[in-house]
């Protein structure tokens, strides 16, 4: 039996002899082999490494044009100095925030961008059978957050409206309990 270790989640994947190796990890669903995998050649002679380097150079020249003029470039036009400054600014912004939610997509911390006022013209409340009235009535505010990693936006109900909602649910649950008895 052969064992393959996923480079992403470090899970051991058992494979029967003669069986074709898995291309996708059954644990994390990432590709095990392919363009995302980095192969390190440790303990090989210099001649073998030179041959592989030449093959890789040929593949790069055929597949795409690579500009090696700026070594600090990350491929997005950002130099390492800009990225360091970006990370420092994000860290300072996060330190200022009272609430630091996690991005639902990439799980990085999100930066608060501001508040959005939702007016009665832009919101149609849902009247529930349990409460007999709307859960929340406009106008109210949403706190807007932006992920500095994947740039997805996320909104949360404003703090004062969250507290109002909790009080409202607490009162209605108590009222419903007393009406049933």
3D structure, described in words:
This protein has 181 residues and is α+β, with helices and mostly antiparallel strands. It has two domains: 2-63, no CATH class; 80-180, no CATH class. The chain has three helices and five strands. The protein has helices at 46-63, 80-96, 159-180, and strands at 2-5, 12-15, 111-118, 140-146, 153-157. The strands form two sheets. It has a three-stranded antiparallel beta sheet. It has a two-stranded antiparallel sheet with strand order 1-2. The longest helix has 22 residues, at 159-180. The chain starts with a strand and ends with a helix.
Keywords:
single chain, 181 residues, alpha+beta, 2 domains, 3 helices, 15% strand, elongated, coiled coil
Beta-strand proportion = 15-25%
Share of helix, binned: 25-40%
Overall 3D geometry? Answer: elongated
Q: Strands across the major sheet, in which order?
A: 3-4-5
Number of helices: 3
Question: TL;DR of this structure?
Answer:
By secondary structure, the protein is α+β, with helices and mostly antiparallel strands.
Task: Annotate the secondary structure layout.
Elements: E1 2-5, E2 12-15, H1 46-63, H2 80-96, E3 111-118, E4 140-146, E5 153-157, H3 159-180
Antiparallel strand pairs: 1-2, 3-4, 4-5
Keywords: Coiled coil
Coiled coil: 35-96
């Amino acid at each position: 039996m052969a064992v393959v270790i996923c480079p992403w989640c470090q899970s051991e994947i058992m494979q029967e002899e003669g069986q074709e190796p898995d291309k996708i990890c059954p644990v994390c669903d990432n590709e095990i082999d392919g363009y995302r995998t980095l192969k390190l050649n440790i303990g090989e002679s210099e001649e073998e490494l030179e041959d592989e380097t030449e093959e890789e150079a040929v593949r790069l020249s055929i597949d795409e044009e690579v500009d090696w003029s700026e070594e600090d470039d990350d491929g997005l036009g950002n130099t390492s100095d800009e990225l360091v400054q970006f990370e420092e600014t994000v860290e300072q912004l996060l330190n200022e925030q009272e609430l630091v939610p996690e991005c639902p997509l990439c799980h990085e911390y999100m930066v608060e961008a501001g508040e959005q006022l939702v007016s009665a013209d832009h919101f149609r409340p849902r009247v529930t059978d349990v409460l007999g009235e709307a859960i929340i009535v406009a106008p109210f505010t949403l706190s807007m957050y932006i992920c500095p990693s994947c740039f997805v936006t996320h909104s949360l109900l404003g703090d004062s409206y969250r507290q109002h909602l909790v009080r409202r649910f607490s009162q209605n649950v108590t009222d419903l309990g007393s009406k049933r008895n």
